[in-house]
Amino acid sequence: MTGFTWATIFILIAFNAFYVIAEFATVSIRKSRVHQLAEEGNSLARRLLPIIDDAGKLDRYISICQIGITISSLVLGAFGQSRLAIELTPLFQRFGSLGPASAQSVAAVVVLVALTVLQVVIAELIPKSIALQFPERSALYTVIPMKWSGALFSWFIVILNGSAQVVLRLLKVPQGGHRHIHSPEEIDILLVESRDGGYLEPDEQERLHQALQFGIRPVHQLMVPRRQIEAVDISTPVNDVMQKIANGTYTRLPVYRGSIDNIVGILHAKDLVLHYIEHGGVNSIEQVMRPVLQVPESINANRLLSQLRSKHTQQAMVMDEFGGVEGLITLEDILAEVFGDINGDEKLQPERLPDGKVRLPGLLHLDDAQPWIGILWSGESDTVGGHVMDELGHIPAVGDHLTIDGVYVEVESLDDRMIASLIVTPLAGDEDEVHNG
C-alpha cells in the first residue's frame, strides 16, 4: 500500500472530523458567550454571531456540515474500495486459498468494515466529544473554513434545501430551523450540571431554580393570607391611622369599607404624610388612597408581574371565586420567592433540630417542605399547616400528632386557630439530601 493511499484516507477522515466538530460545536455553544466575545473585539466571534443569531443562516450552516460529512464519507468509501480492496485481493488469494472473485469479495468486506470502524471512532465519536467539551473554541476555530465550504457548496445547498422544503410541504410538516432554545426543564438540568461541576454554588443554583419555577406558580401560593392582612376601614380617623402606621411595620395598608371583603383602595404612608404637610391636615384617608389592583387567586406569577407593571403598582388584592378577599400579594413577596426574604426574616425558614427532627413553619409551602421531610405531600391545601389540619380533620391543638405518608408530625404551636409550627420526623436518608442541596 502506497503512502499516497494512506495520506488520502486520513485527509478524508480529517475532513469528516472537521465538519462533525463544526456542527456539534455550533449547535451547543452559548449564544450569550458569543455576544460577549464579539463585544470584547474577538473577530472570529463577530463572524460567528450573525450565523447563530439567525435561524435560517444557522440551518444553512448545519446543512454545509452535513453535506461535507456525507461527501467525505462517500469519497472515503469509494476510494478505499478502489485502492485497498484491489491491493488486498492477492493477499487473501495467497493465504486464504481463495479464487480471484472470492478473494476480492472478502477483501472488499474487510476494507469496508475497517474503514467504517476507523471513520466512526476517529471522524465521529472523538470529534463530537471534543466539540461538546470545548464548544466555544471549536466553533470559533472552524468558522472561517466553514465560510469557504459555504461558498463551495452554495449551489448544492440550494438544490438540497429546496428539495427538502418541497417534500416537507407534501408531507404537511411545518418547516423549522436550528435554534438555540432550551425548555425550562432543560435549563434546570444545565443548572444542576453546572452546580455539580463547580461552576455554581448550591445556593446560586437553588435561586435560579426558583426563578425558573416561580413564574408558573399561582399567586395564592405566594400571597399573605387574609387573616394576616393589616388593613383599615375607610371611616377610621386620620390620627388613628397615622398612629397605626407609626406603631406598625407596614407602609402600605389596604383600605376597606365595612368589611375586608370590600377593599376600595391602598393607603401609602408617604401619600398621607405629604398631603398632611402640603395642606396642613387630612380630612379623610379617602383623599389620599390609591386605586387597588384586584386579581383572581388562579393567576400565576408571570401574569401578575405583567399586571403590576402595566398598573404601576407594587401590590394587589387576591380575590377568591366568590369575590371575597383571599389574600394580599406584593412585589416583595414575588422577589422573596427567588432571592429569599429580602428583609432577613428567618422565622419562616425550616430548622433542623439536634435530634434529627425538623421544625417547619405552618405557612411553609408543600413544595418547599419536600427536601426537609423526604416526600412531597399533596392535597387541597398549599401549606404544611393546612395539610396537617386537613389530615387531622379538626381544629388542631398543641401536642396533636399523627403520621402522614410515613412522616411523624406533631403540632408545636398555634397562632390563634392556625398552625404556626410543626415538629416532624423526616423519612430516613433525608438529612443528607438537605445538606447536599
Note down, in words, how this protein is organized.
There is one protein chain. The longest helix has 42 residues, at 55-96. The chain has a 5-stranded antiparallel sheet, with helices on one face. A 4-stranded mixed sheet has the order 1-7-6-5. Helix 3 runs parallel beside helix 6. It is elongated and about 110 Å long. 24% of the residues are buried. It has 4 domains: 3-170, no CATH class; 184-214, no CATH class; 220-339, CBS-domain, CATH 3.10.580.10; 351-436, Uridine Diphospho-n-acetylenolpyruvylglucosamine Reductase, domain 3, CATH 3.30.465. The protein has 437 residues and is α+β, with helices and mostly antiparallel strands. It has 15 helices and 12 strands.
Integer count of domains:
4
Total strand segments: 12
Portion of residues within helices:
55-70%
Strand order within the widest beta sheet:
8-9-12-11-10
User: What's the main sheet like?
Assistant: 5 strands, antiparallel
Oligomer: single chain
End-to-end C-alpha gap: 60 Å
Average residue pLDDT: 80
Apparent shape: elongated
Structural class of the secondary elements? alpha+beta
Strand content: 5-15%
Total of DSSP H or I helical runs spanning 4+ residues: 15
As residue ranges, the low-confidence spans are 430-437
Our Rg estimate from Cα atoms comes to 34 Å
Series of H and E elements: HHHHHHHHEEHEEHEHEEHEEHHEEEH
Short synopsis of the structure:
Helices cover 57% and strands 14% of the residues.
Structural descriptors:
alpha+beta, CBS-domain, 4 domains, 5-stranded antiparallel sheet, 4-stranded mixed sheet, 57% helix, elongated
